[in-house]
Specification:
Layout lengths: L4 H14 L13 E6 L13 H17 L3 E3 L9 H10 L3 H18 L15 H15 L1 E4 L4 E4 H11 L16 H6 L2 H9 L4 E11 L4 E3 L4 E2 L2 E2 L7 E10 L5 H6 L8 H11 L1 E11 L4 H6 L12 E6 L10 E4 L6 H4 L5 H12 L3 H6 L6 E8 L6 E6 L11 E4 L5 H9 L36 H15 L2 E7 L4 E2 L12 E4 L2 E4 L29 H5 L10 H4 L2 H4 L12 H7 L4 E5 L5 H15 L12 E4 L2 E11 L4 E4 L5 H4 L6 E3 L1 H8 L5 H17 L4 E5 L5 E6 L4 E2 L2 E2 L1 H7 L7 E3 L9 E6 L10 H8 L1 H10 L7 E2 L5 H15 E2 L3 E2 L8 H19 L3 H17 L5 H11 L4 H10 L23 E8 L2 E9 L4 H9 L2 H7 L6 E5 L3 E5 L1
Parallel strand pairs: 1-2, 1-20, 12-14, 20-21, 22-31, 24-29, 34-37
Antiparallel strand pairs: 3-4, 5-6, 5-9, 7-8, 9-17, 10-11, 10-13, 10-16, 12-15, 13-14, 18-19, 22-24, 22-26, 22-30, 23-25, 27-28, 32-33, 34-35, 36-37
Helix pairs in contact: 1-32, 3-4, 26-27, 27-28, 27-30, 28-30, 29-30, 29-31, 31-32
The structure holds one RNA strand of 87 nucleotides.
RNA sequence: GCCCAGAUGGCGGAAUUGGUAGACGCAGCAGACUCAAAAUCUGCCGUUCGCAAGGAUGUGCAGGUUCGAUUCCUGUUCUGGGCACCA
């Protein structure tokens, strides 16, 4: 009887499914455990081998916890709203709901083959109206709440209205620059629109204006991903910034809680650090500088820019280093800053305008990543309030409008970027830190003593911070300020395939729908194209617009911000989930997913959970207790290099012009040759020979064109399907058959005639032709082999390139395990004999190792421990049930099908998943002696077997008596003998 | 540019707390079984010097701490992920 994995896996998957072996109840005597995967976006490309990595890990842990006696919730669903489905709809006219459904069916088929223990009755689908009814409901909670500055909690906005009616604005004075103080009477006298505008400043979901990537030619807003070098990825049309009405979530109000509560979480330090940096809390000061000159006419023309007394504009900067105020040599203002037009002098007008035009075409990312120093002088000066010095005001792309006040004071002697800027534009540098600044590189120290700093001379920088801020506050031109790098989260998209907002607009006021009107269903549309003026496709629907409904839809992360709650009670029609269910399951105990969600999804989910907690709908305020980040399985891409350097071409006269004109030569050059040219390793002669070779090849391609001259050796690199490359060697025949345009390809190969491809490690993606489909592997080796191999690849948290080659080894292991139970000739070989001490030692060592490794998510070493165990049992020909049966239970999380099959072969009637995890007993593995490594000066020279209970004195005697040690000692006495019990011995000579 | 992570044989990786570097697997080499193949089994397998015994060297690179460093510290290079409308 041989290991027929195909039959076994199909049989048990069927039985588990029929008998609902993985159904989970919301009531149980057992302790609960919630294991969650980051649910997938069901893309049209299907599952690739990267997806299951985390799912297998979570499946192993779920099964392990169940064997350990827990009631385990392990659900799965789909993040089904998103841009790709909409894009597909625009291109192919297929409704996103249809393509999404097909993709989900495909995903499910693929997932099922791997044998996961999901409770599919709890499946959630974010694009299902039954689900997004509650997404809309939560949005209404956000809309109808504000962050109470006293309690630091989300509170119904009606409370704020009551406060305004009773005492005016006292509770919120100073919180929003757009809201001036008012009394209760003044509040009551305001129109409804004026009142609602004020309330909008406090709602947790609010409407405002923001800049987007606007592509006029496509008539749509583009994601940063879709913009490449300032033009649209599709079509290469110009993209510029456009101001649009947008919904936002007021996540900045929660910044402190999101930051502080990180310490409650069992997340990696790296992950916490990324969130901390994203929130970017800094303490510093806002300082007002008077602007002295510039375009005076324009200042007079816009008097609101000027302070009443000076009639001059004020430049407000944010700095974390007010102590360096005497070292300010210039100001940098973001090019879109409101002051720029007003302060620019006539002489600088053109330069500034040109610079702003340049910046408009640049993405935020490009602006920050730019190495080249760019900027323009406005012609205006700010006045240093302490010494009256005139400070030139510049604009530069690296200062972003959205952070701080959009203006910084630059101190070149203490800041790298300021220093480079000053050098580039020849701005004189003031040294305020004495010897700590050597003139060639800036020094950001806080420990030096100030010089050239007026009343601060001799004060240590660190101490000067308080002094300066106190003084600024006293003078009324500055104040302490806590700043966050994080901005409020943009929460609307001008798209079709997302949740509609339950909002009606009347006279410029947003009115929420009532709960009874939910779900507000996404209407059918004729076309998925954008609406007029940058509005979404919903603006094209007359019936929608007539009702004054909001035409934006929610972003992808709306549905994914709370899905983990819905799994707990997914069929509830009256609540998003009952309090009884959320109280029982509580936090997700283990959340497994990629680091790519470090700041987006994980931060939004934390926010939503906190708001629901504040409003009393949940009993916990952090969603994910423990987070495990699986590394990305990267694809190993292969490249071919096509020659494009033939500049002069001569048509073969017999060919029809129109067919031959644009057809380039299809000559591919092997990577080593391309690299030799690029690294200038080729001699002139080599290059001439290569040119001749290429010319000959081109002229031999009789269907194309001939050339008389090769001017330059240039190549275009393109992806080639990894499946037609053996290692790095291209299968030339398969390559020619892969695309019509390659049919006549010719190759410049290495000396041995092989065409070698370039190799790069990248994210796995269909467009890079580097995906590997799990179905083929499951078909060929079985789900158990596939599961164990994915785990065996390396540490779960590490990203690693996929390579199918090693899968045979894991498959051999399972076959070897099988042979402990069944022999091909003899059939059943397992027996009921009593185990020996050696056999028990192997068993209990394995129990300990598997338990420890599983607990610390070291699945790769667990797999190798199974291999070691089976190798040892095979070596001593152990076929005893007493040893093998517990090993099957250990193996269940990793290879559930083969474990179940053999478990039943041994005569068991129940599922193995309902067995109890074996208990480790230390008495079987105790050792009495140890083979100590003996080092001389840190280098191991010999081994010495000594009893484990031997102490330092006895060990020293034993060691110095050793022949090899004596040889190395050369008669000298050791200076010192270091003995670590149970570890090693080191002799220092 | 900024934030985070990683780097160990031909390859994936192991070394859990500073204590024998290379477990386990792949590939390769040699052999057994077989008419043959598959499957299976046995042995070898970092580099280098040496017939061998044995020695030297070796965890991206350069330093440092230590009796002892893949592990800790400083600097540096390269690779991967993220950077706010992909999910």
């Amino acid at each position: 009887m041989e290991y027929n994995f195909g039959e076994i896996e199909q049989k048990w998957q069927g039985k588990w499914n029929e008998s609902k072996a993985y159904e989970v109840s919301n009531t149980s005597d057992k302790p609960k455990y919630y294991v969650l995967d980051m649910f997938p976006y069901p893309s049209g490309a299907g599952l690739h081998v990267g997806h299951p990595l985390g799912y297998i890990a979570s499946d192993i842990f779920s099964r392990y916890k169940r064997l350990k006696g827990f009631n385990v919730l392990h659900p799965m669903g789909y993040d089904a709203f998103g841009l790709p489905a909409e894009q597909y709809a625009i291109e192919h006219g297929v409704h996103p709901a249809v393509s999404t459904e097909q993709n989900i069916a495909n995903f499910r088929k693929q997932l099922d083959k791997i044998g996961f223990c999901y409770d599919w009755d709890r499946e959630v689908l974010t694009c299902d109206a039954k689900y997004y009814k509650w997404t809309q409901w939560i949005f209404l909670q956000l809309f109808n709440s504000f962050f109470n500055p006293v309690t630091q909690k989300a509170t119904p906005i009606t409370e704020l209205v009551k406060a305004f009616e009773a005492e005016g604005s006292t509770q919120i004075d100073g919180l929003r620059s757009a809201v001036k103080s008012f009394s209760a009477e003044e509040w009551k006298a305001l129109t409804e629109k004026e009142q609602q505008d004020i309330l909008m400043e406090f709602r947790l979901a609010f409407c405002g204006y923001g800049e987007v990537n606007w592509c006029e030619a496509l008539g749509t807003v583009l994601a940063n991903d879709e913009v490449v070098n300032g033009v649209s990825e599709r079509g290469g049309h110009p993209v510029e910034k456009k101001r649009l009405r947008q919904w936002y979530l007021r996540i900045t109000d929660y910044a402190d809680r999101l930051l502080n509560d990180l310490q409650k979480l069992e997340w990696s330090d790296a992950m916490k650090e990324m969130q901390t940096n994203w929130i970017g809390k800094s303490t510093g000061a806002e300082i007002d500088f008077v602007v002295s000159i510039g375009n005076r006419e324009s200042i007079i023309a816009s008097p609101e820019l000027a302070t009443p007394d000076s009639r001059l504009p004020i430049l407000k900067v944010y700095t974390t280093r007010p102590d360096t105020i005497f070292g300010v040599d210039f100001m940098v203002v973001s090019p879109e800053h409101e002051l720029v037009a007003g302060i620019t002098s006539a002489a600088q007008q053109k330069e500034v305008e040109d610079y702003i035009t340049y910046v408009k075409s640049r993405s935020e990312r490009e602006r920050q990543a730019e190495k080249k120093i760019t900027g323009a002088f406005t012609g205006a000066y700010a006045i240093n309030p302490f010494d009256g010095r005139e400070i030139p005001i510049w604009i530069s792309e690296y200062v972003l409008a959205g952070y701080g006040t959009g203006a910084i004071m630059a101190v070149p002697c203490g800041d790298e970027r300021d220093f480079k800027f000053a050098n580039h534009f020849n701005i004189p540098i003031t040294n305020i830190i004495g010897d700590a600044f050597n003139g060639t590189e800036p020094n950001a120290t806080k420990d030096a003593k100030l010089t050239n700093s007026g009343f601060l001379n001799g004060v240590v920088l660190r101490d000067a911070i308080q002094i300066v801020v106190d003084k600024l506050e006293e003078m009324g031109i500055g104040k302490r300020k806590i700043n966050y790098r994080m901005r409020d989260a943009a929460f609307s998209r001008q798209r079709y395939w997302g949740e509609p907002f339950p909002i009606v607009w009347k006279n410029g006021i947003a009115y929420p729908l009532s709960e009874s009107e939910l779900p507000l269903e996404l209407p059918k549309v004729e076309s998925y194209s954008p609406g007029p003026d940058g509005q979404g496709p919903l603006a094209n629907i007359d019936t929608w617009v007539e009702k004054d409904l909001e035409t934006n839809t929610m972003p992808g992360y709306a549905g994914s911000s709370w899905y983990f709650l819905r799994y707990m009670d997914n069929n509830n029609d009256t609540e998003f989930a009952s309090r009884q269910a959320t109280d029982y399951w509580n936090q997700v105990d283990l959340y497994i997913g990629g680091t790519e969600h470090a700041v987006g999804h994980l931060l939004y989910s934390r926010l939503w959970t906190k708001v629901l907690y504040d409003l009393g709908y949940l009993g916990f305020d952090e969603p994910f207790k423990k987070l495990l980040n699986q590394g990305m399985i990267t694809g190993s891409s292969r490249f071919v290099y096509r020659f494009i350097g033939a500049s002069s071409k001569k048509q073969i006269s017999t060919l029809n012009e129109s067919t031959s004109l644009d057809k380039p030569a299809t000559i591919f050059v092997s990577v080593n040759i391309v690299e030799s040219i690029e690294n200038k390793k080729f001699s002139l002669e080599d290059i001439e020979n290569l040119k001749l070779e290429i010319k000959d090849k081109i002229n031999s391609q009789d269907n194309y064109f001939q050339t008389s001259e090769i001017r330059s050796l240039e190549f275009v690199k393109s992806h080639v399907d990894v499946n037609i490359v053996d290692g790095v060697e291209l299968d030339k025949e398969q390559f020619k058959n892969s695309k019509a345009e390659y049919a006549n390809a010719l190759f410049i190969t290495e000396e041995d005639g092989k065409y070698i491809c370039g190799v790069e490690t990248e994210k796995m993606s269909k467009s890079k032709f580097n995906t590997v489909n799990p179905d083929d592997l499951v078909q060929k080796f079985g789900a158990d082999t596939f599961r164990m191999y994915e785990m065996f690849l390396g540490p779960i948290e590490q990203s690693k390139p996929w390579d199918t080659k090693g899968i045979e080894g894991v498959h051999r292991f399972l076959k070897k395990l099988w042979r402990l139970f069944y022999d091909e000739q003899k059939g059943k070989v397992w027996n009921e004999a009593e185990p020996t001490a050696d056999e028990l030692k192997i068993l209990h060592r394995t129990i300990k190792k598997i338990e420890d490794d599983t607990e610390r998510f070291s699945f790769n070493t667990a797999v190798s421990a199974f291999m070691v165990c089976v190798n040892e049992l095979a070596d001593i020909k152990c076929h005893k049930r007493a040893i093998l049966e517990p090993i099957l239970i250990l193996l269940t999380p990793y290879a559930p099908h083969i474990a179940e099959e053999l478990w039943h072969s041994l005569g068991n009637e129940t599922y193995i998943i309902d067995a109890a995890f074996p208990t480790f007993e230390a008495k079987y593995v105790v050792e009495s002696s140890k083979e100590y490594p003996v080092s001389i000066n840190g280098k191991v020279r010999t081994n010495l077997n000594l009893p484990l209970d031997m102490g330092q004195a006895e060990v020293e005697v034993a060691v110095t008596a050793n022949e090899i040690v004596q040889k190395w000692l050369e008669g000298k006495a050791p200076k010192k003998i270091i003995f670590v019990k149970g570890r090693m011995i080191n002799i220092v000579i």
